[in-house]
Each structure stands twice: as C-alpha cells, then as structure tokens.
Amino acid sequence: MIMTNNAAAHALNIDVSDPIPAVDFNRRFSQRARAIESSAIREILKVTERPEVISFAGGLPSPLTFPVDAMRGALDRVLANSGREALQYSTTEGYAPLREWIAARVGTPEAPVSPDEVLIVSGSQQGLDLLAKVLVDPGDTVLVETPTYLGALQSFSLFAPKYVSIASDEDGLLPEALNESMRGSKFLYCLPNFQNPTGRLLSEERRYRLAERARELDLLILEDDPYGALSYDGETPRSIRSLAPERTVYMGSFSKVLAPGLRLGYVIAPLALRSKLVQAKQATDLHTATLSQMAVYEVIKDGFLDGHIPTIRTLYRDQCAAMLGALKRHMPEGVRWNTPRGGMFLWAELPRGMDATAILARAIELNVAFVPGAPFYAANPVSEALRLAFVTVPPAQIEEGVKRLAGVIRASL
To answer: Are 397 and 355 in contact (CB under 8 A)?
Structure first.
C-alpha cells in the first residue's frame, strides 16, 4: 500500500501542521559568494528590455552583423560530415584546427604563436575567471587602468586582490605611472584597443614603453583584445604581445566579429601558465562546446572574416558618426566626450559636480538609458563619467535619445 505524504507523516508521529523552516542560505554562503555584487550594467539592461527605451547602455554588438546564413550552412556541414564528433566530449585545450587558425592569425614574425599556447574558452569572460583562479591569492596586487572593464573587476574581485589603479588619459594608460612600488605585482590588466568603457586606443609609442616597463619591473601583462578588429580605418598598432611575448597573456574573442551567443574566446599564454589554465578549466566545464568550435572553424577557415569584418567596421563607424553629430548638436556647454577611432563605446563627462547615476534615474523616466561610469573604477570613481554604446541604436533613435538625455542634463545644471 502506498501512503500519501500526510499519512506517512502521521505514521511517523510528525506534526505536519508545523511550518518547515527554509534553509538559511545567507548563513551558508561562502565569504567569496557574499562579496559578489550584481553587475551595474546587467541591472540597467533589465530596464532597457522595454521596447520604448532608447538604450545606450548595453555593450552588445549589432545583431545586423551576425552571419546567420554562414553559421547555418556551417552547422549543416559539420553535422553532416562530423556529426558524432561534434556532439561528443572533446579535449579541454580546444578543437585543434581552430587553435591552429588562431595561432596563425595572432602570431607575428617577431612573436610567433604555437597552437600549444592556445586555450579555447567559453567566451573571454571565462578566460578572465580562469586567469584569476590560477594567479590571484587574497591580498595580491593587481594593476588596472583607470577606468577599466567592469567584467574584469567582477572576475578578479572574487579572489580578493588589492587593486592599484594606473593613471590614464584620453590616450590610455601612462607607462611612466608604473613605478618601483609595483614591482612583482601579479599582473597588469589592460585593453589597448578601443577599450571598454572609454573607446580609447593606446598609442604604439606607449605600447613599446609599456613592454619596456614590464621587463624592468617584472610584470605580467594581460592584454585583452576583443575590439581590435573594429578599427574604423582598418588599422591598429602592434599588439603588446608582439613586443613582449614572454611577458604577455593575450585574450581574444569571436563575440564581436561573429556573434556573442557562440560563447567562444581564447587565451594565448606561455606553456607553463596555459597548462595550469587547462587544469582549472577541467574543473569548471571540461571543455568549450565542440559544436560551436567546429562550426566557427568551418565559417572562418577560408577567409570569411576578411570580407565580413569590413562590413562591421563600416556600420560601427557610421553609428559612431551619428552619435558624435547628435552630441555636438544637443549637449549643453560643459559636457565633454572623446572621439573613438574604433569599437563600440564613447566616454563622456558631465560638468563637474554632477552625478551620472542621478542623471540616469531621470533619463529613464524619459525612456533613455546609459551606463554611469563609476562602476568601471577600481578605486576613486568619477561620478560625472558615463559610457554611451551606440552600435545597436539606429541613427534616428540616436538623435532622439541624445536629445532627451541632453534635456535631462540641461535641466540639472
């Protein structure tokens, strides 16, 4: 005979009228989990899901650039020709032909890349997480730009480093700001190409000086480069890795040149570090999705990106021009902004003393959104700063959104 839950409880003399206490997870969370905070950007994106909101908030590539037909054909071919392999477990290091392609693409005559130095990861965000896991102990010194990528701060902060912010200007970080007190820091994290959040580009001269300072001060550089292909004129300076391969870990991504939903990135690291990253990844997700890796390789192996990336550059250049034009027409005196030469972002600063977070609250009432700049600082945030992302908003909406935002700022002066 099968008893009901209540009957079984009565048979065991359990008083089912007493409420069952819920698990107190706050008491059970690890110290690391208690330190986690939601991304400011992700919280803002919840608001921007409303169709009436003109959003300059999300750091999303334009879906107009996603090669849907090419991916569909690649998936069909992979499943038809290598379906069982594509749907099976694979090696942690990643699909060998894709690693070979990356090595050839990133390597230079001065700093060749071996496929054995390449690790395929589930988006470059996983690369940041793995690097933090294998490099950072609580209290270790980590050097970052001012400001820097919020996602990196989130990954690193789980492991409780001590941040040191490196002075920067409109042309990126200042190599001369690296001094003897920073000798032997765990690493310097930087985005030299069209940085998120500022859109700025580190000059070639500064890259040479940065490589020199890394050698002088025994520094490891984490060079994060998801936007380097998005130069509006097709030109970018030499990578830091090409100048100091023994001192550099290089990270790249297919999110901005193909599609972010693929969750495909890569880390190029000296063998001793790459082997430890492989071990950490084995404990995380075993390997990056085999089907995604094989399909992406099928798309790019014959030069597809050489024709596809210029279309992205043209679109983003035109979108940036629309944003710059609207800012010039509508923004009140005292608001300043930069002029990016590539990428997806523009950095602006309100008149001194204004609070971008307060401006955001009023802007959302008018159905326009952006990201305040303060969360991008490891220390001493600038309350006047804000990031504007322009690649997913049509020019007519850019004009209207900037006009509304300018009205809010003018009313707050």
So the answer is: no
